[in-house]
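Need a sequence for this fold. Nothing fancy.
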């Protein structure tokens, strides 16, 4: 039975990719929290800014996470 070949470079890249996803998701969380606070105090300008930044950070996290899936993936869990 043949075991799959795992290169150290690929494993290291996956670790860095997970770190990038975690950082971008954390930034999205912070901006989402800010958006909630700005909505609570009625600051529309800051609310729009925070939501835009949360969307950018979440999109970045999703793009980085897509690098982790196998190239032939068709989605799903």
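Here you go.
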């Amino acid at each position: 039975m043949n075991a799959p070949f795992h290169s150290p470079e690929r494993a290291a890249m996956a670790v860095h990719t997970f770190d990038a996803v975690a950082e971008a998701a954390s930034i999205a969380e912070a901006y989402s929290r800010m958006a909630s606070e700005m909505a609570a105090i009625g600051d529309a300008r800051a609310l729009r800014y925070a939501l835009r930044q949360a969307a950018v950070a979440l999109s970045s996290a999703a793009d980085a996470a897509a690098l982790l899936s196998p190239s032939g993936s068709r989605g799903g869990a």
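For context: The CA atoms of residues 17 and 66 lie 10 Å apart.
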